[in-house]
Design brief:
This protein is mainly alpha-helical. It is about 45% helix and about 10% strand. Strand 1 and strand 2 form a beta hairpin. Tetramer of two alpha and two beta chains.
Length: about 290
């Protein structure tokens, strides 16, 4: 080969290696399509969501906590009205106006009118579609409260919670002050709630102080009925043996003896018992006499 051509070839290689070159890679269209789809989905989801605004955050019908917050505020307001003596019913718009909640949405209003207020145990719906507070006891003054306590005492129903009386009776504190001599207050040890009883003065008895001291000194909290009965038997006292619920005595059933069945002979044709009949020659024999 010509040495001049070889020299030109080597010089061309060196020059090509010395000059920089940029290669253009092919673009992957699949990745570009996936990214465009993701962007379009995110933009559409953002556009469909309602914008949280200072003007529409109360009218949004999304969370149930907002609905029940509106309902709780209505119930508290209706209870306060009843305790102050306002017992006239209100429409839904009037209730929302008095509770400063006129900006609630239509869905919340519909929920209040069809479900929440209809099924709430503290709210009563009248025939004309208005709402009023529903107390535990229907008492209006001190006379009705005293009458209710007397009925509970006569029927043996026990006492009444002070919370229920405060919720049901308008101006409760004033009525309780006037009836201080007619009511007994007892604190329940389990939850420390006060219970009201009627003070029946006809049932008061004068008890000797020594008996009261002995009664209060005797502690039977940790003893059951069996231990108390055992203690009384040791002291020679048998007055408790006939008290308390008795177990019903089940009568014993008598065993029935099964008699052997005797098969009785048939009683038909007893008048022909001594007559022999033979069908070979068609003869009847009776007492040695044969008849053809």
């Amino acid at each position: 080969m010509d040495p001049a051509l070889l020299r030109e070839r080597e010089a061309f290689k060196k020059k090509a290696l010395a000059t920089p070159s940029i290669e253009k890679k092919k673009r992957d269209d699949s990745q570009f399509k996936d990214e465009s789809k993701k962007k379009s989905k995110s933009s559409s989801s953002v556009s469909t969501q309602p914008k949280l605004d200072a003007t529409n955050y109360k009218t949004m019908t999304g969370s149930s906590s907002y609905r029940f917050g509106v309902l709780a505020r209505i119930v508290r307001h209706m209870r306060a009205r009843h305790q102050e003596g306002d017992d006239h019913p209100l429409t839904l718009d009037e209730v929302l106006d008095e509770t400063n909640q006129l900006d609630v949405g239509n869905k919340v209003k519909q929920w209040l009118q069809t479900e929440a207020l209809q099924n709430n145990p503290k709210i009563e719906c009248t025939q004309d579609g208005k709402y009023i507070f529903k107390p535990v006891y229907k008492i209006k003054d001190k006379k009705s409260l005293l009458r209710l306590l007397k009925q509970h005492d006569l029927k043996g129903l026990g006492g009444i919670l002070l919370e229920d009386v405060q919720e049901s009776l308008p101006h409760c504190e004033r009525a309780l002050k006037h009836l201080a001599q007619e009511i007994l207050y007892i604190t329940r040890p389990t939850d420390k709630k006060k219970i009201l009883f009627y003070n029946d003065k006809t049932a008061t008895l004068d008890v000797d102080e020594e008996f009261v001291k002995l009664w209060r000194a005797t502690a039977v909290d940790a003893m059951d009925d069996a231990k108390i009965e055992e203690y009384l038997e040791k002291q020679g006292i048998k007055s408790m043996q006939d008290h308390g619920p008795r177990k019903p005595i089940v009568p014993k059933r008598k065993k029935t003896t099964q008699k052997r069945r005797q098969f009785k002979k048939p009683r038909d044709n007893e008048h022909l018992a001594d007559v022999l009949e033979t069908y070979e020659d068609n003869t009847l024999t009776q007492k040695g006499v044969s008849i053809k």
